[in-house]
């Protein structure tokens, strides 16, 4: 089989698509023929030597943490799945998972079945961003109905899902995005949209109970005055989390950092929402494995609306 495999960390020139050994099944695993894999900022950062790279161990390394596909075989102790089942999952993070490959050995406990009316590209792109949004909103921030939430970078991969999940919770949702994305965010459920290029968000909104920070750095720090004294900000970008948390402490505001973890039950709930039309994931573009460098360039631009996928089938 073939996979994206790195022999050294670096730029797009290290992204080789080459023949590799087929994965072997361990207890609790299923073997999946990959339909597509979600492409995320953490993939680009890790391949360049940052992000989750310290957790990878020795090279070579096959990147990718989320995928969709069909079951080819099951470990002897796996009873919940059978051949040809449509599945998706977010696995092993932040250790190596090897999802940018034609076949994946995945722990059955981290997988969810894909409903027949959910597109497999959507299923590939949902797990990481969806679980990040879900866990940030409902575990980190404990978002409640009628609360006011500000989502920074609301049109991005995590942001556009968080908007819908918060609206589904009956929260009042305020999002930041450039002006051309405002109509899109209102369709998703934003009650108010702020052009971050034209105004300092903290100067133009009433105080909020929750801030979900999908941007990090100075943008997050500038938004802190919009947070109520008893509110909470959940900051997602790990590279700036320490400075954002420190700014929160200086302003006497609660700031939490979090990293998504695999959760099959939560993923299944989101797939059911997708099947009913209550959660819409935007796939901005799909790429062939040989085009992964182009996808990384798009992610690095910071202008992606929705998610990108790597298509194997």
Automatic annotation (TrEMBL):
Pfam families: ADH_N, ADH_zinc_N_2. This is NADP-dependent oxidoreductase. SMART domains: PKS_ER. Gene3D superfamilies: Medium-chain alcohol dehydrogenases, catalytic domain, NAD(P)-binding Rossmann-like Domain. SUPFAM superfamilies: GroES-like, NAD(P)-binding Rossmann-fold domains. It comes from the Bacteria. Residues 10-310 form the Enoyl reductase (ER) domain. GO terms for molecular function: oxidoreductase activity.
